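Worked example 2:
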Amino acid sequence: MSDPTVYVVDDDEAVRQMLCWLVTSVKLPVVEYKSGDDFFDLWNRAMVGCIILDVRMPGMSGLELQRKLNRQEVSLPIIIITGHADVPMAIEAMKNGAFYFIEKPFNNQELLDIVQKAIEESVRRAEMKSQNGKRFKILASLTERERQVLEILVKGETNKVIARNMSISQKIVETHRAKIMKNCRPNPWRT
């Protein structure tokens, strides 16, 4: 997993510089973009961190970028900042999954606290995505019969009950279970 980074997307150079200074003051990596198009052209699925996104920008607005990222299933939490907030805009941003919506001028410490929470959420999402990838890989390595045994195993049934329910010998269940357990070390099902 890459280091969590704060991505600042704002067309106003003075605001970008201030936000970058603020973020680096707490020793977080930061990358700045002057437009939504610039960020969208360079994002990738391995990014971990959060986006501080201005709403009003020439070209692609912040809300348009948010919608495009949602269509790409980007899991970076987005903190929307704006100096021109209205209720419908805030509602749209939150409906589209904004992590937080904050108006300019904002309290620097409040923004840093929000950024820290967004980064923690991003790391949690990345870890969950990684675990889900491991689980999928394990499931893909099992035969159809082994997956059937696993389905019953996770319900807490004993080998004897599984054998009876599947009309197979208990020894075959034990063999399938051994392969499943071998593939599941360390336990990818634990969260």
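The mean pLDDT is 86. Strands lie at 5-9, 30-33, 49-54, 78-82, 100-103.
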